[in-house]
Write a structure and sequence with these properties.
The strands form 2 sheets. Strands 3, 4, 5, 6, 7, 8, 9, 11, 12, 13, 14 and 15 form a 12-stranded mixed sheet that branches. This protein has one domain (33-219). The longest helix has 31 residues, at 2-32. The N and C termini lie far apart (67 Å). It has 2 helices and 15 strands. The protein is an alpha+beta fold.
Length: 225
Amino acid sequence: MKQHLSIFFVTFLCVAVLGYVGSIAEENDAWDNAYNSTTKERFIPVELFTGGEWDGKHELILKEVSTSACATVSGLDRPCDNYYITGPFKTETNDTQIEWAGNEISYYRRTFSTRRMGEVESFFTINNSKDGLVRIYDKRKQWGTRTYSGLGNKFPLGYWKQGEVRTYATRRPTTIEIIELDGPDHCLTFRWVIGDGKERNTDNNYTFCPDRGFTNIRHNNESDD
């Protein structure tokens, strides 16, 4: 009897391990297949922003997540800042210019805290042009509460090419430039500029990595204290 139990346990353990390894391989294949080396084009899913698991499907859906990321600031010798994403939630009305969303908008809630900015709360959803995530709500001590039209872009989604630049006609024009489309570990680095980029925190490079989300920010025109 003990011998049969031992054989059963070993078999069960092998199946479990193989299943786990298989799921990791499938996820790695998904990120590998997101980039087309011939066209130098990549599909960027929502899961790269959230740090959630991605099934490899080339579709933009706000799936249920509760994740955390730890992002460093280039040039500063200090611990990383923790970013928390939960959702999706839904607004009661659509007070933006996101036409495809209908009467209510699904969004993620992101929170973080830094020494300079204190507690920050933002709502993110797919923008009106369906090629990025955009803030529709933001609350922080510097300016209180703000709402946004949904016409801009804060994080690129869908198909983008290496070096591509897109500009969005918001109140102050917003520009996204792909710096490194498919870097080590399939990480993405892009430049985000709003207006002329000369004001504090309006010209930044952001890096996001699979299964980790936001990992690094570089301020291109300032030093952070």
